[in-house]
Design brief:
By secondary structure, this protein is an all-alpha fold. Helices cover 54% and strands 2% of the residues. It contains 35 helices and 6 strands. The strands form 3 sheets. A two-stranded antiparallel sheet has the order 1-6. A two-stranded antiparallel ribbon has the order 2-3. A hairpin with a 2-residue loop joins strand 4 and strand 5. Helix 12 (215-223) crosses helix 18, helix 14 (255-271) crosses helix 15 (273-285) and helix 19 crosses helix 21 (412-420). It is globular and about 95 Å long. The model is unreliable at 1-15, 17-42 and 563-594 (pLDDT under 50).
């Protein structure tokens, strides 16, 4: 049976067609079609699978994991694809000591936002403290302000480093894929005010424990997380003026005592104009209802944009969630419910009535309603099928996954199982049909090359400079899950350059000399080396065009876009990403003739790489908060030396279209 060609989004097909090998049917390294034996027909489901037995092995490692490490293909083949899938669905049963030991070095990962705010207050808070003391700021004060400011970003760099490291070395690969999926689905932007302080606990306490649990528990954990409460402003959402609250339900306060307390507060405010101004600002900010979280809860987290809700439903949900806040406000702490600011009037949401004078249980009931709604089941099933199967998932598969969601009350593990054991998942059309995101590309490259995890932020910064800063997406909708969003001329150039950089030792943790295949192929012919690399990285099947590129060392795409030498970086990333690269500029980069500003930035990047790791993490954290201020990929890895022989083959293979797909 011939292998069906994968379908691609139009933009991706156009970009890869320029490279000359977008839709060519894969060939074995010897030029024959890949026609390995089918998977054993142990059941009707496995017998119906279109992918060959070997394709199934590579497929699950590329979809349920961040690619294969050396030896993984053999291990999955020996265990059996279905047994391996079942094992990955229960990560709590998989020992993961190496991963846990590695991330333990990042002390900030075990801390809450409240602890991090106490350890390293934001510069504005320190400045306010100094100003309250009165007098002029001393040199010591300025130094303290600068140091505390730097420290307030370091933990963000550590979190990004831990994310990449876990994706590279964790034995619980499916769990890491699901963490990546949910942290994108429930996106939180590090750059909003103090939000970054709450991200380590968001990753550790909110997402990870629930990644393969029930959707309702995950939704509730997100709704109560300081990160989401702060990012979408629900911590400040209170009942509008004139609305009844639960204040009457609180223990009554003696009127005379209340008057004395109010007078004392006013006296203190009168003596401190700055405190008075701050109180006024807080009063303005907490004046009434904030709909931000309610809107995203319905549109992005549960029902979907076409989920059947109205603007009035958004308002009603926001009212139901008033008083859901952070125990110490902007200073952090756990979830708290403030009945005195909760809108206690009756509400109607999605046609369901909610009685008046209810407290925190009202918000919980709203989450129950949204989590169990048919639109939510379909929305989540569609997104999971898009992640695991194709950019346009088959309707029949979505229907079955939706039915599983509803039948199991949102059991994420069950829904994922329905999808990843389906005939659609193992269809020929699904094989290599998804484009890797920058995060997936970096993680899969490191895994393929048997890389050691990187304790510095340099690898996570490569993810950023390929277009996907970790926790750096400003809008609540998260990064795209479809391939066309990641592929354009500049992106393809960056990905090819990244592959060349990885082979030449410019990516931390990757040493080609330590790759098991290097010693085996070192003294063989180029054709044997190409065959060996294709077998190791692609399971023996690539397009005729890709094999020709590896044999000749000449990449038509690079030549077309001005590269004088395929083994060198050929474009300034910023110009390429805007589609405005000129041939002269590309040739200049290839010969190392960089502009003065580019040379200055590259020198700064090299100095930063030599700085203590703590300082590197601080710089990486600031870049995550302001991604637009980060450098380019070219500045990160510099101009490469002339690449020839085996190094060139590996570099071009890592930049090949087949490696960009999963």
């Amino acid at each position: 049976m011939s292998i069906l060609r994968p379908s691609f989004p139009p933009v991706l097909a156009l970009c890869l067609a320029t490279l000359g090998c977008a839709t060519t049917a894969p060939q074995s390294s010897a030029g024959s079609s890949a026609s390995a034996n089918r998977a054993p027909a142990s059941s009707a489901a496995s017998a119906a699978r279109e992918q060959t037995a070997d394709q199934q092995v590579h497929h699950v490692l590329n979809r349920l994991a961040f690619g294969a490490r050396p030896g993984d293909v053999e291990a999955v083949r020996a265990m059996g694809v279905d047994a391996w899938i079942d094992r990955q669905l229960y990560p709590e049963r998989i020992p993961d000591a190496a991963s846990e030991q590695f991330v333990a070095r990042f002390a900030s990962l075990g801390k809450t936002g409240e602890q991090l705010l106490a350890d390293a207050p934001p510069p504005a808070a320190i400045l306010a403290q100094l100003q309250r003391r009165g007098g002029n700021m001393t040199a010591a004060d300025s130094a303290k302000l600068r140091e505390q400011g730097r420290q307030s970003y370091a933990f963000l760099g550590e979190l990004a480093s831990s994310r990449v490291a876990r994706a590279v070395i964790s034995e619980r690969q499916l769990n890491e894929v699901m963490v990546d999926f949910w942290e994108n689905h429930f996106n939180v932007f590090a750059g909003k005010d103090r939000t970054r302080y709450f991200l380590p606990e968001y990753d550790a306490q909110t997402i990870r424990p629930h990644a393969l649990g029930t959707f309702r528990e995950l939704l509730g954990a997100v709704a109560k997380s300081p990160a989401m409460l702060y990012y979408l402003d629900n911590w400040q959402s209170v009942a509008d003026s004139g609305r009844p609250t639960l204040r009457a339900a609180q223990r009554p306060v003696n009127a005379r005592q209340a008057a004395r307390r109010a007078a004392a507060v006013q006296q203190r405010l009168a003596q401190n104009p700055q405190a008075q101004q701050l109180a006024q600002q807080l009063a303005q900010r907490r004046r009434g209802l904030n709909e931000n979280y309610a809107r995203e809860l319905m549109e992005l987290h549960t029902l979907g944009v076409d989920g059947g809700y109205t603007q009035q439903d958004v308002i009603e949900v926001a009212r139901a969630l008033t008083g859901w806040t952070i125990s110490r406000g902007a200073q952090g702490g756990g979830f708290a419910f403030r009945g005195e600011v909760h809108d206690a009037s009756a509400k109607t949401i999605l046609g369901k009535s909610f009685a008046a004078n209810k407290g925190v249980e009202e918000g919980e009931a709203v989450l129950d309603l949204l989590a169990s709604h048919p639109s939510t089941a379909k929305f989540i099933a569609t997104k999971l099928a898009r992640r695991f199967v194709s950019d346009t998932p088959p309707a029949a598969l979505v229907e079955r996954a939706t039915a599983t969601f509803r039948r199991t009350n949102g059991d994420i593990r069950a829904v994922v199982r329905t999808i990843v054991t389906s005939p659609e998942f193992f269809a020929s059309a699904s094989y290599r049909a998804k484009v890797k995101s920058p995060f997936e590309l970096v993680a899969s490259t490191m895994r393929a090359m048997n890389a050691q995890p990187d304790a510095t932020p340099r690898t996570s910064q490569l993810v950023s400079r390929l277009g996907q800063p970790i926790f750096g997406h400003q809008a609540p909708n998260g990064y795209p899950e479809t391939g066309d969003a990641w592929m354009n001329t500049g992106a393809i150039l960056n990905r090819i350059n990244f592959g060349l950089a990885a082979a030449s030792g410019r990516v931390p943790g990757i040493k080609l000399a330590a790759w098991p295949l290097t010693a085996e192929l070192a003294k063989t012919s180029r054709e044997a080396q190409v065959d060996g690399v294709i077998k190791e990285l692609f399971g023996g099947a690539v397009s005729t065009d890709t094999r020709q590129v590896l044999l000749t060392g000449t990449n038509p795409f690079l030549q077309q876009h001005g590269g004088a030498n395929d083994s060198l970086l050929v474009a300034d990333d910023d110009a390429a990403m805007m589609g405005g690269m000129a041939s002269g500029m590309a040739s200049g980069m290839a010969s190392g003739d960089m502009t003065a500003s580019a040379r200055k930035q590259a020198a700064s990047e090299r100095r930063a790489a030599r700085a203590p790791v703590a300082q590197q993490q601080q710089a990486a954290g600031r870049e995550a908060v302001r991604p637009e201020r980060g450098g380019t990929l070219t500045q990160s890895i510099g101009s490469l030396p002339q690449l020839t022989g085996f190094v060139q083959i590996v570099g071009l293979a890592l930049g090949a279209p087949e490696f960009q797909r999963r």
